[in-house]
Amino acid sequence: MTRLAMKLEQLPIDRARLARSLRLAGVKVGEGRYRVDGGREAHWVDLYTASIPRCDCADHLWRESVCKHILAALVREGHERVIREIGGLFAELTDHRTAA
Fold first, then answer.
1. Which of 32, 63, 78, 99 is least crowded, fewest Cβ atoms below 10 Å from its Cβ?
2. What is the C-alpha to C-alpha distance for residues 91 and 39, in angstroms, rounded to an integer?
3. Which pTM value belongs to this model?
């Protein structure tokens, strides 16, 4: 796997954004490049090129956060840390349901 342009291991993954990312559709358009649909408009994500924005959405550009579009692309890339976080989301859901 090519090295990510951002240091994701040092950035927090917001579980609410991760949950929303699972509802998005991502189409691979190149090496580490995705068109992500499912919200109000399509967004473009580039996971590997450091010289351009990694996502063109306001959440990423203004807040400099790992947005739901980047997370959707990372899910499709099979990024290990993001997949582990999905497991944590699933565990929270099943724990919540069994406690109710």
1. 99
2. 26
3. 0.84
